User: Which sequence fits this backbone?
């Protein structure tokens, strides 16, 4: 249960921190459009980290009790759903498919890396 609380806490702290950085960036540094892009990426990172802990808590919870076929099927479904969410968030943050990362990194020349559009 402690890992679940930590996962939810990380999501909440990540959301609050991303919001504060967004407001500061919009008002002071980069302007609202760039701050919004960073906000989405930072918010996604916080959610991803929290989801990883929640998946770990589910695995530990299933192993800690007497594993039954029903418990294992429920765990598998939860992991499948959370993995899909994590994959979707990763694509949203990076702006490209994960398997495109290696092919685009070799073609980029100096400067800041720009995500490929989907």
Assistant:
């Amino acid at each position: 249960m402690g890992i679940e609380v930590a996962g939810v806490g990380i999501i909440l702290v990540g959301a609050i921190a991303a919001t504060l950085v967004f407001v500061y960036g919009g008002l002071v540094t980069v302007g609202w459009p760039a701050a919004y892009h960073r906000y989405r990426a930072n918010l996604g990172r916080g959610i991803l980290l929290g989801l990883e802990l929640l998946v770990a808590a589910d695995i530990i919870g299933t192993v800690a009790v007497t594993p039954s076929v029903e418990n294992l099927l429920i765990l598998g479904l939860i992991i499948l759903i959370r993995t899909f969410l994590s994959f979707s968030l990763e694509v949203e943050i990076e702006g490209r498919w994960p398997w495109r990362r290696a092919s685009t990194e070799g073609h980029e020349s100096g400067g800041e890396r720009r995500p490929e559009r989907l």
Notes: The CA atoms of residues 1 and 61 lie 8 Å apart. The chain has one domain: 2-102. Residues 2-102 form one domain. Residues 32-64 form the longest helix (33 residues).
